[in-house]
Design goal:
With 385 residues, the protein is an alpha+beta fold. Helix content is 34%, strand content 22%.
Length: 385
Amino acid sequence: MSRVSAPATAPDRPAVDGETRLADLAPDALVRIDVKGRMVDANPAAAALTGHAVTALVGASCAELLDPRTLVGDPLLGAGFHPSSRLRSVTGVPEQQVRITRADGSEVFVHVTATYQRAGDGTLQGATLALRVAPRPSRQNPSGIEIVSTVSHELRSPLTSVKGYTGLLLSRWDRLTEEQKREMLEQVNHDADRVKRLIDELLDISRLETGRLHLHRQMVDIPALVDNVVAKVRMEYPSLDARVVAAPDVPQVYADPDKLTQVLTNLVENACKYASPVGLTITAEVGDGEVAVSVADRGEGIPPADLPKVFDKFFRRDLGRPTGSGLGLWISRGLVQVHGGKLAASSVPGEGTTFRFTVPLYSFEDLHPTVSEPDLPGERGPDAP
């Protein structure tokens, strides 16, 4: 397939019936693909976005020509459409961010939505994709409205999934197999956890800044917590390959399990986003009066100039990858510090990055000293009033 280095700027296909098609006037890139992933139609905006002429797009494999991938590098169409597309009542795909490759070899991040096309009997025939360039993250502190917009966008995807799957379960319960029901309920449970964590992070921002964050401590088994976090993150990143190394003498810690889960989930997800979900090593070990947990990746590393800033509020590295609000590591450090521990990062450019947090080995008695009971009536001395 030939490539051109300059984007198309005008329609290079004839108008239909002598009139300009509505799709040709659309500001967003529109591409229609068949069930085999071949592009069967595209508008001029798609040519301008991808750098390929419309005639080069039509007939080509979307997976091969544009190489669409998730933010962690997983191919989108390598295995065909998402399994949920087999359900006739599923009409499309909620908005998500995707990385595509342009004709000149450069990469661009786009927001993508899709609508499925079906035959009268519900058989999938293809999909229409709408692509819009995703704005680069700002290096300056975002305004309140930008933070609300970012959080709203992050909440929309899991809520759309929850709404879609619960609707399917309610309307087609008797026609779904037990395996389909289980898959949908597992996804709903995962997305509900994701929404809860996003809301908890928003509340934690205010509580950390005002010193009003309260921990609900209990005895926590760190290796079990690590295994649970890896299992949950794998639902979001199926290609996650993490080696868990837990020393046999790691004791339980007296801590808030929800907050530690929040911290570790953030660290593992960050490694998946900005390094690779493959080759992670999560280590739990006991030190001098503390338990330490490390998450090490094999990514490109963090430049020395950026390393001291990674825990700053709103800091986002300008790597061309969308990074959310820039609050995750700041919140994680605050949660660790409230426990009396430390969160630090070390990195070797070209070899990877390690985030390590500690939790002191406090006992219940250390934090809740015994209070002497008052004298009971009749047990006071003769000089008592």
